[in-house]
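Inverse folding, one chain.
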């Protein structure tokens, strides 16, 4: 009987570890093309995505960041390796915010923001959206500086506004898993800093497991509970950082701290040393 105890303990520990994760990648590689035109994009990726945490991914252009995000979201199939996902969490709600945000041109900003909720209502055979759902959308529009533009159509909005509406469309459904491909890239610097606070707090409060791709090292450090650094193509994991910021709730205060500067320098050097 005692000879089986260690194995039982190992299995128990493994189960406990997995229940704290939403996604786990083991030896994942990915290529595209065929014949002599195959391009190796990612090589042997091992990565764990903790439940309720925010993971950011940085790396040189063309290193496979977006491909990695789509693999985790289930939008691409792996060439080799395995991706484990918590299926209950996935079914409870998954949202993907693409790099090129698109809105339906015949719908207003508010109507576009409600689209995900409407799709979910159709699936669950609800006849109309709840008042609480509509109020939540309105609060997001207001907090994200879109108040007064609720009835504007996409051709009346700036690129940054369109990107914000697309992000609100995903957040409105309160997903369990959220995948974002450079969601703040078209937003002006000042608004981007303010929204970083809002976005981080919202993901924390709702315990949304979030994976976010960015080219901005500062954004990655402030937002990320863990920061994944990829090498040049084929993308491989150079390091995974776990920023410990003295004031992680305020982006301006965090950026001015010594801890932030030290973390930036480490990641910058890793990217410089692993461009190709």
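Residues assigned per position:
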């Amino acid at each position: 009987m005692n000879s089986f105890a260690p194995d039982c303990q190992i299995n128990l520990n493994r189960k406990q570890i997995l229940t704290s994760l939403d996604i786990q990648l083991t030896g994942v590689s990915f290529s595209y093309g065929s014949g002599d035109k195959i391009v190796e994009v990612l090589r042997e990726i091992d990565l764990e995505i903790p439940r309720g945490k925010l993971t950011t991914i940085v790396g040189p252009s063309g290193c496979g960041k977006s491909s990695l995000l789509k693999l985790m979201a289930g939008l691409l199939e792996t060439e080799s390796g395995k991706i484990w996902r918590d299926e209950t969490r996935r079914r409870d709600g998954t949202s993907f915010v693409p790099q090129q945000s698109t809105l339906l041109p015949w719908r207003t900003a508010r109507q576009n923001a409600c689209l995900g909720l409407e799709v979910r209502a159709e699936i669950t055979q609800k006849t109309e959206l709840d008042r609480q759902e509509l109020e939540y959308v309105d609060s997001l529009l207001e907090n994200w500086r879109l108040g007064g533009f609720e009835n504007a159509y996409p051709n009346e909005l700036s690129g940054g506004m369109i990107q914000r509406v697309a992000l609100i469309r995903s957040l409105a459904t309160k997903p369990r898993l959220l995948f974002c491909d450079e969601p703040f890239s078209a937003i002006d610097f000042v608004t981007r800093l303010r929204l970083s606070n809002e976005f981080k707090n919202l993901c924390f409060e709702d315990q949304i497991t979030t994976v976010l791709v960015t080219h901005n090292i500062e954004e990655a450090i402030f937002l990320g509970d863990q920061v994944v650094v990829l090498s040049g193509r084929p993308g491989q994991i150079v390091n995974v950082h776990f920023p410990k910021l003295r004031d992680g709730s305020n982006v301006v205060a965090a950026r001015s701290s010594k801890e932030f500067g030290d973390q930036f320098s480490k990641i910058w050097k890793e990217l410089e040393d692993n461009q190709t």
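The CA atoms of residues 62 and 209 lie 25 Å apart. Residues 1-18 have pLDDT under 50 and may be disordered.
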